[in-house]
Amino acid sequence: MTVSKVFVLHGFSTDTNFYSQLESSSLNNNIETMTVTPSGHTIPVFTAENGRRPEMQFTTHQVRTALAELGLLGADAGTIVLRLRKVANKGSRVAAATTEHITYTANCALSYAMTIAAGAKKQATISGRHAFLNDGTNAALIYSGTAAQSGASTGGENFILGPIAHNGTFINGTDNLSIDLGPELIEPEEEILNEPTFAAIDRIVPTISFDTLDADVWALDGTAITNGLKLNLIRKRPDLDRFADADAQHILFTVAKGRIECESVSGNKSLTKVKIHAVSPDGTASPIAVTLDSAIDTAAIV
After folding, report:
1. Residue 65 in 3-state DSSP?
2. I need a labelling partner for 230 at 20 to 30 A (CA). Which of 19, 30, 44, 160 fits?
């Protein structure tokens, strides 16, 4: 026997977007198995599937696309199709138009973001999850077999960490930004089918953390955010450097209310780990406001 079927990740599509700038993707059926060993026996005599919870987790550089489609509270992104492209032996890739590639299809899903990460001169990423559901007719995840591939691959959506400011004051030397949305889900067990039919976001509990060289940040330890914390992602410009500060190409995250903590100092550079607990400013608005296609903004909220 010889190896003849090797596939690589091509991307996944929703009803409105194709995600090809994937850093990673994992598909899992999460199958629960019931196995019975009778009293007095040392070996099992019965096995059956006791349920499954299919899902796909992913990390992509298409931060703007994902935020526009999913927001911070998730969305129904329609039909999700995961695409694998066949590798040509003694070549590179089999042509996309040939019917030799693999697709997996989910007709019903809750799709949501989990974390956003960026660093100084490090590509920003957004990680998320598709919780696949049985729609009453179709299985939650369907192996669709071989097919031609579709979806226009892109590599042009790239961001890095930009300036972070509190109350209009720039925080110097920041790196390793992490925005953890802390999503908590309602995913009830299905009493009839062996797959879930319902999934919803119960709540998000966002926390933001980053490192800084600026020791003056310790003056903010244990204080409340009063005039806004602003975090910018700078968009890189094709074939050049980056878009200008005034160009409406960047991403802005704004926290109007919350608490700032300085957790630790570490390393020979004395990096301070800063953590922010973001809450809604009025009980209705999101704890983190997202502005897409923004200019760089470090001004205080007045």
Report:
1. helix
2. 19
Spatial contact of 23 and 117, defined as CB atoms under 8 Å apart: no
Phi/psi for 219 (5° steps) reads -65, -15
Which SS3 state, helix, strand or coil, does residue 1 take?
coil
Tell me, letter by letter, the H, E, C secondary structure of 56-78. EEEEECCHHHHHHHHCCCCECCC
Asked if residues 53 and 187 have their Cβ atoms less than 8 Å apart, the reply is: yes
Confidence (pTM): 0.93
* Amino acid type, 152: A
Using the 8-state DSSP alphabet, how is residue 217 labeled? G
Residue 82 CB neighbour total at 10 angstroms: 22
C-alpha distances in Å from residue 273, one per residue of 188, 230, 270: 37, 17, 10
Cα 58 to Cα 115: distance, rounded to the nearest angstrom: 11
Residue the block writes with tokens 């939650």: 140
